[in-house]
Predict the 3D structure of the following.
Amino acid sequence: MTPKDIQIPRKITNQLLHLAQISPDTEVCGLIGSKNGIPSHCYPVTNTAEQPQQRFLLDASEQIAALTHMRGQGEELFAIYHSHPNAPAQPSALDLDMAGGYENALYLIISLNTKGILEMRGFSIRDKTAQEVGLSLSDE
C-alpha cells in the first residue's frame, strides 16, 4: 500500500476510538474490511497475548472467522488495527517484529497516551520497517 493519503470513514474511526476507550488498560485489536478500496466494516478480534497491556495477538479462530466473513461480503482485508494504552501511536519494535503475512494491509495504531485527545496513525510495514501513511476522515 503506497498511497500518500488514505481516507478512513468517520464511522469506522469513531468505532476504533470507542473500542480503545472502553478497554483503556489493554491493547484492543482487529481487522478492517473494505469494498472497492474503501474501508467498510470493523471486525474486533480478541487479544490473546500473554501481556495484553503491552502487546497484541489476534485470536486465530476469530481472525479466520473475520477473514471468512469479509470474503462472503465481497470485502478485502484493508487494515489491521491495535491500540497502545501507554505508548505513542507508532509501531513498537515488537510490532515491527510481529508484522508480516499481510504486506498489503495498512496497520492502524490508536494511542491513549495523549492528554484528552486520542491519536490514530497509519503505517505500511514491510521487512520490519514502517512507513507512515497519511490518514484523513471521510463522511462515507
Notes: The longest strand covers residues 129-138. The chain has a mean pLDDT of 91.
